[in-house]
Amino acid sequence: MKQKGEKQESSEGSEGAKGKMTLPLALVALVSAFGSSFQYGYNVSVINSPAPYMQDFYNRTYLDRTGVPMDGGFQTLLWSLTVSMFPLGGLFGSLMVWPMVNNCGRKGTLLINNLFSIAAAILMGTSELAKTFEVIILSRVVMGIFAGLASNVVPMFLGEMSPKNLRGAIGVVPQLFITIGILAAQILGLSSILGNAKGWPVLLGLTGIPSLIQLLTLPFFPESPRYLLIQKGNEEQARRALQRLRGREDVEDEVQEMYQEDQSEKEEGQFSVLSLFTFRGLRWQLISIIVMMAGQQLSGVNAVFYYADRIFESAGVASSSIQYITVSIGAINVVMTLLAVFIVESLGRRILLLAGFLLCSASCAVLTLALNLQSTVSWMSYLSIVCVIAYIIGHAIGPSPIPAVMITEMFLQSSRPAAFMVGGSVHWLSNFTVGLVFLYMEAGLGPYSFLLFCAICVATVLYIFFVVPETKNKTFMEINRIMAKRNKVEVQESQELKASYPLGKQDEKKVLSSSQ
């Protein structure tokens, strides 16, 4: 019997090494990433190109209503609301993750979420006809809620469906689609396409189409097997879902592993966010995702994107061709994230995070220098373009895609929704903060504001280097054991789990009392 078990394990290992990407798994990753993550990226950058035409519309509408033109201060306020309501909505969306994924399931949450996006798309698309700019600001909040849910639920859904040897690669797919969304919005927003006085309502309304496609296709795919087995207690459905996703009848080892995970956390029940913060057994996992998510946003990625146009302008690029350069930077972002999909399983998560953050900090440091010297040294302006590109490459291989993968991997089923809620809230709060503070920072510090981003990148590198373990090709239980040592809680549970599966109630109590 022992032999059979060993054989099973090794065959799973070798099948794993071959990377059994089945058609259903690939399709569910594409459908959920295109229907949800894509729109997050699309809506991040969609209002950059048509901004002057939209502001003009705000102005005209106000003039029609009141008979007086809008004063500059009020217009700036309305525009910064239009921009910043999106990350604020994202924060609200993140706060809805925990109740929704536990009650409606992962797939159910994604389907319900599409209604937000379709409603917002219709409102934004018809705002000009209805002569109301308030609707645009409201729709940005609604789109934010959609993105807040999507940015957390898609990585969770795909991470729970993937075999352990593909979890990183499939976990990067949502981020890949975010970058494709950004690029799509940049291309469609070119002044020759939709980024003009006539086209902008269409540009804003297009975001409903991926949602419609997802609403029609996702119901044909299975729900997350872990959710079905561990939270719903439905082994039959979970087994069927796994067989479909793996393309083979024998999924015993994975079902067994889920039962193991289920046993080890039976007593704890579902974690709420509060219990997550007070539970010692998850202390370092929690600190790690907060540091990684804050580092991802506070490393200044949005500032670099905002700043890119101005950096190129000061480098003497003609203003008519700046939009094409922005598009090519968007394309570099897509290509590098695509590269991350292929290298995350061979190089591992740690290397990509460390290399990415290091490249970002170096780029920020050199960029500060280049921006300061470009009035005196002529070629410095080209160096600043190189820095922007290097920064985008660094962020795309590690800091952007990996943190969401790590949240999936560092937490077990019972604490994962609460962990995503915390990680997501940190992500959106930091995003919102950078959006608000950066304009003031730039006014006060000028190019030196990038030194602050450099320092944040370096701090994040140090934390990851000393604390965050490598998680590639490990089961959720194995990762849990590594972190248990770090949290100084009893690792005894793992031996017992291996030896006597399933765990007796007595042993469980012992394990839990030791980990409290």
From TrEMBL:
<keyword id="KW-1133">Transmembrane helix</keyword>
<keyword id="KW-0762">Sugar transport</keyword>
<feature type="transmembrane region" description="Helical">
    <location>
        <begin position="21"/>
        <end position="42"/>
    </location>
</feature>
<feature type="domain" description="Major facilitator superfamily (MFS) profile">
    <location>
        <begin position="29"/>
        <end position="472"/>
    </location>
</feature>
<dbReference type="Pfam" id="PF00083">
    <property type="entry name" value="Sugar_tr"/>
</dbReference>
<dbReference type="InterPro" id="IPR003663">
    <property type="entry name" value="Sugar/inositol_transpt"/>
</dbReference>
<feature type="transmembrane region" description="Helical">
    <location>
        <begin position="136"/>
        <end position="158"/>
    </location>
</feature>
<feature type="transmembrane region" description="Helical">
    <location>
        <begin position="447"/>
        <end position="468"/>
    </location>
</feature>
<dbReference type="GO" id="GO:1990539">
    <property type="term" value="P:fructose import across plasma membrane"/>
</dbReference>
<dbReference type="GO" id="GO:0005353">
    <property type="term" value="F:fructose transmembrane transporter activity"/>
</dbReference>
<comment type="similarity">
    <text>Belongs to the major facilitator superfamily. Sugar transporter (TC 2.A.1.1) family. Glucose transporter subfamily.</text>
</comment>
<keyword id="KW-0813">Transport</keyword>
<feature type="transmembrane region" description="Helical">
    <location>
        <begin position="77"/>
        <end position="98"/>
    </location>
</feature>
<feature type="transmembrane region" description="Helical">
    <location>
        <begin position="200"/>
        <end position="221"/>
    </location>
</feature>
<feature type="transmembrane region" description="Helical">
    <location>
        <begin position="322"/>
        <end position="344"/>
    </location>
</feature>
<dbReference type="GO" id="GO:0055056">
    <property type="term" value="F:D-glucose transmembrane transporter activity"/>
</dbReference>
<feature type="transmembrane region" description="Helical">
    <location>
        <begin position="286"/>
        <end position="307"/>
    </location>
</feature>
<keyword id="KW-1003">Cell membrane</keyword>
<dbReference type="GO" id="GO:0042383">
    <property type="term" value="C:sarcolemma"/>
</dbReference>
<dbReference type="GO" id="GO:0046323">
    <property type="term" value="P:D-glucose import"/>
</dbReference>
<feature type="transmembrane region" description="Helical">
    <location>
        <begin position="379"/>
        <end position="397"/>
    </location>
</feature>
<dbReference type="InterPro" id="IPR005829">
    <property type="entry name" value="Sugar_transporter_CS"/>
</dbReference>
<feature type="transmembrane region" description="Helical">
    <location>
        <begin position="110"/>
        <end position="130"/>
    </location>
</feature>
<dbReference type="InterPro" id="IPR045263">
    <property type="entry name" value="GLUT"/>
</dbReference>
<feature type="transmembrane region" description="Helical">
    <location>
        <begin position="170"/>
        <end position="194"/>
    </location>
</feature>
<feature type="transmembrane region" description="Helical">
    <location>
        <begin position="351"/>
        <end position="373"/>
    </location>
</feature>
<dbReference type="InterPro" id="IPR036259">
    <property type="entry name" value="MFS_trans_sf"/>
</dbReference>
<dbReference type="GO" id="GO:0070837">
    <property type="term" value="P:dehydroascorbic acid transport"/>
</dbReference>
<keyword id="KW-0472">Membrane</keyword>
<dbReference type="InterPro" id="IPR005828">
    <property type="entry name" value="MFS_sugar_transport-like"/>
</dbReference>
<protein>
    <recommendedName>
        <fullName>Solute carrier family 2, facilitated glucose transporter member 5</fullName>
    </recommendedName>
</protein>
<dbReference type="InterPro" id="IPR020846">
    <property type="entry name" value="MFS_dom"/>
</dbReference>
<keyword id="KW-0812">Transmembrane</keyword>
<feature type="transmembrane region" description="Helical">
    <location>
        <begin position="418"/>
        <end position="441"/>
    </location>
</feature>
